[in-house]
Structure prediction request, 312 residues.
Amino acid sequence: MRIRAILSFLCVTTLAAGLVYAAPPGQIRVQVNLVNLFVTVRDKHKTIISGLKQDDFQVFEDGQLQEITNFSAESDLPITLGILIDTSGSEYYMLSALKEAASRFLGRVMRKGDLAMVMTFDTDVDLLADFTDDRSRLDRAINRAQINVPGGGSIIAQGPLPSSGSGGTNFYDAVYLAAHEKLSGEAGRKAIVVLSDAEDTGSKVRLQEAIETAQRTDTVVHILLVSADGGDYSVAKKMTDETGGRTIVVRSERNLQQAFDEISEELRSQYTLGYTPTNKSRDGGYRKIKVEMKSKDYSALTRRGYYAPSGN
Prediction:
């Protein structure tokens, strides 16, 4: 079934995870107050730190200290994962290595209870495999990805976005669609791993709209910046910083697997923190979040904020 998204009319529902649950038609819409954060802690040498306790963390919302009411250090919490592969002409020489490394990455990171999907993007955004725990199905989808160049043939699968005819690379559209159309209905830990040079030349949505949609759906975006010249680092860094993910520059096949290994370790080494905001206003506004460590030798990585619910 082809999933269509009308990007010319962006009616983004407030879906900040932990704050609003968008129920299917005919069901009751449930409002809750807990804000959930997934946090990675590193020391000054960038080594991931495990074994920490709730008292090692402090959470601030708009500068105000919050009381942490939920805490977990489990590494096996289920993950719902989206793999987004750039199949525009700029990745022509790297695509084979990207596909091989992506398959190995899923083999390493996925455990019982995890789900993953595979999407490609160029002038279209195509869904090659919907959420599944079937590794062979995911591997087949990754292997079907091919470069789309002007005058050439591209894979037309069950894609959420029909071609706009505008050409270019629809990077922002791909992130928007993955978060809004696919991950918004999923619970728990959610992440998107993008393999791209992050250079967008054809999207209908803007960078900030893609970022906001990831934030509203509590989706962390990680980007492997695959480009001989570094790609658009500022765009990639903004998207990952705002959603709590990482940007890793990949200039050759040699360090591609290392980059995947770092993301895999990150996904499996997160703490879960939950708090009920002291600000009870339902104004739909953006709330800034900062997680600080009591030990100055450690630093925390998490999303920078969320959107409060609106209405009564």
User: Anything to note?
Assistant: DSSP finds six helices and 16 strands in the chain. Confidence is low (pLDDT under 50) at residues 1-31, 151-166. Residues 95-109 form the longest helix (15 residues).
